TrEMBL record:
Domain of life: Archaea
Organism: Haloferax elongans ATCC BAA-1513
Record key words, sorted: Hydrolase
Record-given protein name: Hydrolase
Signal peptide (residue range): none
Pfam families named in the record: Abhydrolase_6
Database matches in InterPro entries: AB_hydrolase_1, AB_hydrolase_fold, AB_hydrolase_sf
Gene Ontology MF: a single term: hydrolase activity
Domain (AB hydrolase-1) ranges: 24-256
Length: 263
């Protein structure tokens, strides 16, 4: 069911699937809302809310000069408006940049719980050398947005490489639609490259932090660090699962979510 609301002058639009406890599904930087389609059949016990998010800071006049805090603040404002549009305190389920947004939002918004699959946070040593946003922007500037997205895929989704990336993309449900999100992905990466994980995350709600062994090592490291900075957290790692865990193995991921929320 399609719905739209205006909350505090913020327009929110979303699909709602099913009945039960509202679960807001916050996609990552490169995937459109269709990312969650493989997950939805496994969320029978929840009212799955899939927002039409406005993009990671797309309203900003000068995104290259925008701080991570500014970009995240706009995302958190959108999640707050979305939470106000549904009944009751929702569960936030975020993937990648959506997971970082969910954690940040949970420090300001009343939520039942948070599920965060590999939040887009860089370890300090990795962050100091990170330049993916610049490399992607250079490719866009010369008219190669598809190649820019491929660089993101190679670093984040398949850090160990693929024998045939183009063949893999042909079978990827969100390709080539995600190429249209390239500016948002660059903006998101700039925010991620500036973000520093605090010593303690001020989140009262229980948080389930998820990761996979087949994704980038730096995201696995950060997922554990996020778990350690939260006052109420559980960490679960899936063997052989990549950064695309929720859509790659939805049964396993949702089973872990169900177990966590049942406690």
């Amino acid at each position: 069911m399609q719905s739209s609301h205006s909350v505090d002058e913020i327009e929110v639009a979303y699909e709602r699937h099913g009945d039960g406890q509202p679960m807001l599904l916050l996609h990552g930087g490169m995937a459109p809302k269709e990312y969650w389609h493989p997950v939805l059949p496994h969320l029978d016990d929840y009212a799955a809310v899939v927002p039409q998010r406005p993009g990671f800071g797309t309203c900003l006049d000068d995104p290259e000069e925008t701080s991570a805090a500014d970009v995240l603040a706009r995302e958190v404002d959108y999640v707050r408006a979305l939470a106000d549009a549904v009944d009751g305190d929702p569960i936030l389920f975020g993937h990648s940049f959506g997971a970082l947004t969910a954690i940040e939002a949970a420090s300001e918004v009343d939520v039942e719980a948070v599920v965060a699959y590999e939040p887009a946070i860089l370890p300090d040593d990795f962050r100091r050398e990170a330049d993916l946003a610049d490399r992607m922007a250079d490719l866009v500037e010369v008219g190669r947005p598809g190649e820019a997205i491929k660089r993101y895929i190679e670093m984040v989704l398949h850090p160990d490489g693929l024998a045939d990336l183009d063949a893999w993309l042909d079978d990827w449900p969100v390709w080539p639609q995600c190429v249209d999100l390239v500016e948002e992905v660059i903006r998101m990466n700039r925010a991620v490259e500036q973000y520093r994980l605090p010593d303690q995350l001020d989140v009262d709600a229980p948080v389930l932090v998820l990761s996979g062994t087949a994704g980038p090592d730096f995201l696995r490291e950060s997922a554990r660090s996020v778990h350690e900075t939260l006052p109420r957290s559980r960490f679960v790692e899936f063997d052989g699962v990549s950064h695309s865990g929720p859509s790659e193995t939805p049964e396993r991921v949702v089973a872990a979510v169900d177990s966590f929320l049942a406690k």
